[in-house]
Amino acid sequence: MASHIVGYPRMGPKRELKFALESFWDGKSSAEDLEKVATDLRSSIWKQMSEAGIKYIPSNTFSYYDQVLDTTAMLGAVPERYSWTGGEIGLSTYFSMARGNASVPAMEMTKWFDTNYHFIVPELGPSTKFTYASHKAVSEYKEAKALGIDTVPVLVGPVSYLLLSKPAKGVEKSFSLLSLLGSILPIYKEVVSELKAAGASWIQFDEPTLVKDLDAHELAAFSSAYAELESAFSGLNVLIETYFADIPAESYKTLTSLSGVTAYGFDLIRGAKTLDLIRSSFPSGKYLFAGVVDGRNIWADDLAASLNTLQSLEAVAGKDKLVVSTSCSLMHTAVDLVNETKLDDEIKSWLAFAAQKVVEVNALAKALAGQKDQAYFAANAAAQASRRSSPRVTNEEVQKAAAALKGSDHRRATTVSTRLDAQQKKLNLPVLPTTTIGSFPQTVELRRVRREYKAKKISEEEYISAIKEEISKVVKIQEELDIDVLVHGEPERNDMVEYFGEQLCGFAFTANGWVQSYGSRCVKPPIIYGDVSRPNPMTVFWSKTAQSMTARPMKGMLTGPVTILNWSFVRNDQPRFETCYQIALAIKKEVEDLEAAGIQVIQIDEAALREGLPLRKSEHAFYLDWAVHSFRITNCGVQDTTQIHTHMCYSNFNDIIHSIIDMDADVITIENSRSDEKLLSVFREGVKYGAGIGPGVYDIHSPRIPSTEEIADRVNKMLAVLDTNILWVNPDCGLKTRKYTEVKPALTNMVSATKLIRTQL
Ligand code: GLN
Ligand code: ZN
C-alpha cells in the first residue's frame, strides 16, 4: 500500500505562518515565536499525513519564504551585497535576501513555472562561492523522526536549481550557469550523506524543469549530475519528481536512464500524454510515482477513474512498484475544506483541498492493495454524479451560445486606424492623451465602508452615497490635474476578479481557500464551478454615475475573460477555452450595456493574459489563439466610435507581440517603467503597431515620486520609437496600493511633463 505526497502547503489552514512572519518582520514578536509557529505547523502536517496512512511523507517542503531560496541558503550562494560572513545562514540574512533591508534591495522574484507562486531567483556567477550553509533539510528530517515519523526529505534538484538561476549582476549573459554543476554537487553529496546518516532511506529531488523544452546540452547536464551523485546514493532510494506538464519524449528517455535513481514521479493531470510514454516503456525494477490527484485545483478526485488508470499502470511498473501520488506539491491548492463554512454542502461535496487530497491519495493506494473503502468510494461517486447532473452547473442557453462561437472568428468590422479616426472626431483628445489605469488609492475609510456594507452594518443607500462621494472626489482630482480620459477609481471593488465573480453565475467563493503567492502573501481564487452567465449589469450604474459628473470621457472599467479565468480555480469538466468563451460572452453583454449607457471609452483589463501561456512552446499558439479570440468576443459588437482599451501588467512582449496586435484593441496600456528597453526594442525591431499605446511612464509599485524631467525623458525615449499620434501617457498600473500624498504629486508631474513635450512637438 504505497502512497506519497509531493509537498504540502506551509501557510497553515488559517494562514498562521503569514501572521507569524508579518508580526516577526514588524518587530512585534521574536524569532522564537516564529519558530514555534513553524514547528507546530510542521508537526501537525506530518501527523495529519501519518494518521491518514501516507507511506512517503515529505519533509523540507516547509519554508519561511521559498524553497528555492532555501536551496540558495543550503548552498551558501548568498549574493555579496548581503555581507554574509559565513556560518549557518540565520533568519536575518535569509529575510534580507527575500525582502531586502534598509540598505540593500531584495533578490529578484519570478513566477514558478506557470503557477501563481513566485520564487526567489538565485544570482550566480563564476565567482560565487558555494558552502554548505543551511542544514534545514537534515534538521527537518530529524525533527519529524523525533515525532516518530520517517519522512522523505525533498530537495530542489541541482539541475533545475541552476536552470532557474540567473547570472549575477556584472556577469556576462553568455555565462553558462550549468558550468556551476561541479561546484554545487559536492554540497548536494554532503547533504545526502547527512540525511542518510540521520536515517533517511528515501530522498526526493524535484526536477520540474524536465517538463520544459530542453536542449541536448541541458539534458546532458541531468545525466552527468546524477552520475556524479550516484556514489552518494548507495543504500538509498532516490525519487526524481517532475510536474506541471507532459514530459517530452527525449527528456523522458534521459530521466528514466539516470544513474542511481530508483523512482520517477509524474504529473498525470497536466501530463496526460506522459501516460503513453510510461505505457510504451518503463524501466523494470523502478518505482513509478503516479500523480493522479490534482495538486493545482480544488476538485475532488474522480476516484473510480483514477483507480482505473492506476490499475492499468500496475501492469507496467509491477504491483509492488506503483505508488499513488499527487500531480505536484499541494502548496498550489487551498489547505483544508473543513474551514469552509460559507460554502453550501452540495458544492462542498465536489471539492477537496490539500487535507482532503491526502485522504484521497491514501484511499486509492488502499484500493489498489485490495482494501477498497466501499463507503468512501460510493460517496465520491455520488458527488461526482451530482456534479455532472446538477442544474447549478449546466445552463443550456450558455452552452449553446458558447458552442456557436466555435469555428467562427469575431472581429470588429473596420481597421484600427479607421476606428481611431472616428473616435478622435468624437473624443477630440489632445496629442499624447493622459489617463490612468483604473483604481485610485483605497483608504482605510473606504475599505471600512465596503466591509460594513457587506456585513449589512450600513444600508444600501448609505453605501451608495459613500461610494458616490468617493467617485466625485476622484473625478475632481483628475479634472484639477487636467487628465484627459478619466476613471472612476474603482472604490466599489475589493479585487478586480472577485468583484466580477461575485456578480456572475457559476462562481463560488471560499472563506479560507488561500494559496501562497510569494513569501507571506496569499491569494484566494474564486471557484468557477458552472456555466457562466451575467444576470444583471455589473458596472453600468457606477460608470454612468461617474460619467454624469464630468464632461470629459469616463472610461468604463472591466476585467477581461482571460484574466478572470487565469486568476480562478477553473472547472475541470470542460476545456479551459470553453469556460473562457462563456466568460467572454458575459463580459460582452456588459460592454454593450456600457456603450448603450453612453460610455465612449471602455477598458477591458487583461492583466494576466501572459500568465496563462503554457510551459511548452508547442502549445503556445493554441492558447494564444483562444485567449485572444475571447478578448475580441467581448468587444466585436461595438460601434467604431466606441474606444476599446486594454491593460497588461508586464512588458515582456517579444514572443507574444503578434497576439497582442491580434487582440485588435484601440489602445493598450502596459506596465513598463521597470523595463523600458525590453518593450521598446520590440518596436525598434520594426513591429508596426497602429493602435494607441501607453507604456507606463512611472512605477506605481514604489512610493517614490517621479520628477517631471524624468517622466519627460521617458516619454521622449518612447517618441523616438513610436509615432506621436499613437502614444498615450499613463502610469504603470492601478493606483490602489498608493497613498494620495504619492499619487497627486506623481500625476501632477506626469501631466506637466506631457504638456511640456506637447509644446516641443
Ligand atoms: N484596472 C485595474 C486597476 O487599476 C488594473 C489592475 C491590474 O492591472 N492589476 O486596479
Ligand atoms: Zn496592471
UniProtKB/TrEMBL annotation:
Chain residues that bind L-methionine: I437, G438, S439, E490, D605
UniProt keywords, alphabetically: Amino-acid biosynthesis, Metal-binding, Methionine biosynthesis, Methyltransferase, Transferase, Zinc
Reactions this protein catalyses: 5-methyltetrahydropteroyltri-L-glutamate + L-homocysteine = tetrahydropteroyltri-L-glutamate + L-methionine
Domain Cobalamin-independent methionine synthase MetE C-terminal/archaeal: 432-755
Co-factor(s): Zn(2+)
InterPro entries attached to this UniProt entry: Cbl-indep_Met_Synth_N, Cobalamin-indep_Met_synthase, Met_Synth_C/arc, UROD/MetE-like_sf
Pathway annotation: Amino-acid biosynthesis; L-methionine biosynthesis via de novo pathway; L-methionine from L-homocysteine (MetE route): step 1/1
Catalytic residues, chain numbering: H701 (proton donor)
Residues binding Zn(2+) 1, per UniProt: H647, C649, E671, C733
Free-text remark on how the cofactor is bound: Binds 2 Zn(2+) ions per subunit.
Domain annotation Cobalamin-independent methionine synthase MetE N-terminal: ranges: 3-316
EC nos: 2.1.1.14
Keyword Methyltransferase in annotation: yes
Gene3D superfamilies found in the cross-reference section: 3.20.20.210
PANTHER family, alphabetized: 5-METHYLTETRAHYDROPTEROYLTRIGLUTAMATE--HOMOCYSTEINE METHYLTRANSFERASE
NCBIfam families membership: met_syn_B12ind, PRK05222.1
Family from the record: Belongs to the vitamin-B12 independent methionine synthase family.
Name of the protein described by the UniProt record: 5-methyltetrahydropteroyltriglutamate--homocysteine S-methyltransferase
Native species: Miscanthus lutarioriparius
